[in-house]
Each structure stands twice: as C-alpha cells, then as structure tokens.
Specification:
- The protein has about 90 residues and is α+β, with helices and mostly antiparallel strands.
- The protein has two domains: about 55 residues, no CATH class; about 40 residues, no CATH class.
- It is built from three helices and two strands.
- The chain has a two-stranded antiparallel sheet with strand order 1-2.
- The radius of gyration is 15 Å and the shape is globular.
- It starts with 19 loop residues before the first helix and ends with a helix.
- Belongs to the iodothyronine deiodinase family.
- Responsible for the deiodination of T4 (3,5,3',5'-tetraiodothyronine).
- InterPro entries: Iodothyronine_deiodinase.
- This is Iodothyronine deiodinase.
- Keywords: Oxidoreductase, Selenocysteine, Thyroid hormones biosynthesis.
Length: about 90
C-alpha cells in the first residue's frame, strides 16, 4: 500500500498519512484484505523506514528483530536462490 504515490492494478487507494491515526486506519484497511504477510506500522518520523530502508533495493531476512541476511543491491544483485536456501535451513 503506497498512499497517493503508486498506481498499481488492484491497489487500495489511501490518501497520504498526515497523522499516526491515518496510518492506523490504513493498516486496519489493509488487514481487511487478508494479506499473506504481517502488517507493521512505522512512526510518523519513519524511523523503521530510515533504519531498514532498502535503497537501493535489497533482499533481507529478519529473525527476531535482527537482520540475518542482507543481499546485494538490486535488482541485479538479487539472489533469490540464496534467500530460499537460508529460509529452508530455518525450518
């Protein structure tokens, strides 16, 4: 869900968040769509985004709140087979 930024097919349209209440409302709306991943909420200062931002894009694996895998810069440095191998070893 990217408020007022991206126009993707089947995207849920949400106005840009002006308050933490806006973010809570957006998160609840997203949960109504039954996503296949956890939904988390960042602060209005975007602290998590700043700490974990993948710019340039990267593949990460987080385990118990810690980064256990940080891939190379994407999209050319993506190694999904490496991620799959690590995730399978976690089972």
């Amino acid at each position: 869900m990217h408020p007022d930024e991206w126009a993707l097919k089947n995207n849920v349209h949400i106005k840009k968040h002006q308050s933490i209440q806006d973010r809570l409302t957006a998160a609840r709306r997203l949960l109504e769509e039954s996503p296949s991943c956890p939904v988390v909420l960042d602060s209005m200062k975007n602290l998590c985004s700043a700490k974990y931002a993948a710019l340039p894009e990267r593949l990460y694996i987080l385990q118990e709140g810690k980064i256990t895998y940080k891939g190379q810069m994407g999209p050319w440095g993506y190694k999904p087979e490496e991620v799959r191998f690590i995730l399978e070893k976690m089972d």
